[in-house]
Amino acid sequence: MPELPEVETTRCGIAALLTGQKVARVVVREWRLRWRVSRALVRELPGQTFRRVARRAKYLLLATDAGTVILHLGMSGSLRVVPADTAPAAHDHIDIVFADGRCLRLRDPRRFGALLWTRTEPQLHKLLRALGPEPLGTDFDADYFYARTRRRKVALRDFLMNARIVAGVGNIYANEAAFLAGLRPQRRVGRLTRAECERVVTAVRETLQQAIAAGGTTLRDFQNANGLPGYFQLQLYVYGRAREPCRRCGTPIKAVRLGQRAGFFCPRCQS
DNA sequence: AGAGGTACCTGGCAGC
DNA sequence: TGCTGCCAGGTACCTC
Q1: I want to staple A160 with a disulfide (CB 3.0 to 4.6 A). Which of A30, A152, A174, A264 is the partner?
Q2: Contact criterion met (CB below 8 Å) for A214 and A6
């Protein structure tokens, strides 16, 4: 579920609630996430105080003096802060219990998420080291994007979903950004002109900013830290809208198979 | 180096 | 109603 805007929405929701909280204990009801939940985390996090909550790509970074919790929501994860004695529902796998009696609760039905622990600078962690620039940061610009696309044959949609190129863009926003840029998701990036690359960069930033402002996209079950859905699905131009009229021109939106995942575009607005 | 496929897992839905 | 097959927001890892 969560792409960058949903993770950012979650980060905003939990940052104030977490910062300054001392951890009393960690309750693990299910160890088997994407990777086994870090035993070192369960051992070393109690007694620590959360100093800040940052984000890199789709990873949440919960920093303490002893180390950093690296948390990924996978496809179906969500976080809430609730009283620690609240009965856990199905798929509520982890509680990080605070000294004040509340806890940060991770729910993740598909268990594609991750809960890891690093004692060093999190950016050096294997999972974060090779990530491309943040799409909303200054490193992601037309020069960079144009240079990286040269001699590449992959479809624009897949290129945007490549975390080594740009971090945090998933299928929804890759398709939406392609629409805003006026380019079909199946376009081979190596043939994009410099001007088209500039449009893509602008479109990616625009799409993500709008989505963050709307609290993310809730297709099925995404909820923010307060248990509320996002609203960006109401503004989607193409994603999941096959055969529905384009919001710009009324032409039916088309779905294409790109690799293993669906792509969506307006045959009139995108070339 | 790059492209493409596979694997991990559960739940919802369409179709029969 | 109940079964089956397909699809899903991610991404590391494998092979070619």
Answers
A1: A174
A2: no
Q: Measure, in angstroms, how far nucleotide C12 C1' is from residue A73 CA.
A: 15
Let me know if A121 is a catalytic residue. Answer: no
Work out the average pLDDT over A43-54.
97
For chain B, which bases have at least one atom within 7 A of a protein Cβ? 2-12
Write the pLDDT tens digit of every residue in A70-97.
999 998 999 999 999 999 999 999 999 9
Query: Can you tell me the distance from the alpha carbon of A190 to that of A212, in angstroms, rounded to the nearest whole number?
Result: 30
DSSP H helix total and E strand total for chain A: 7, 10
Strand order in the sheet with A102-107: A23-28, A92-98, A102-107, A78-83
Is the pLDDT score of A260 beyond 60?
A: yes
Q: Choose which CATH entry (1.10.10.10, 3.30.420.10, 1.10.8.50, 1.10.2020.10) describes domain A142-265.
A: 1.10.8.50
- A37: left (phi > 0), else alpha (psi -120 to 50), else beta? beta
Q: Do strands A92-98 and A102-107 pair parallel, antiparallel, or not at all (unpaired)?
A: antiparallel
Please give the span between the terminal C-alpha atoms of chain A, in angstroms, as a whole number: 28
A214 touches strand C (CB under 7 A): no
Q: Would you list the domain boundaries of chain A? A: 4-129, 142-265
Integer angstrom CA distances of residue A148 from A160, A190, A264: 11, 9, 24
Q: Determine the nucleotide nearest to A158 by Cα–C1' distance.
A: B3
- pLDDT tens-place string over residues A202-221: 999 999 999 999 988 888 77
* CB of A68 closer than 8 Å to CB of A15: no
Smallest CA-to-CA distance from A21 within A87, A134, A100, A121 is with: A100
Q: CA of A257 vs C1' of B5, distance in Å?
A: 15
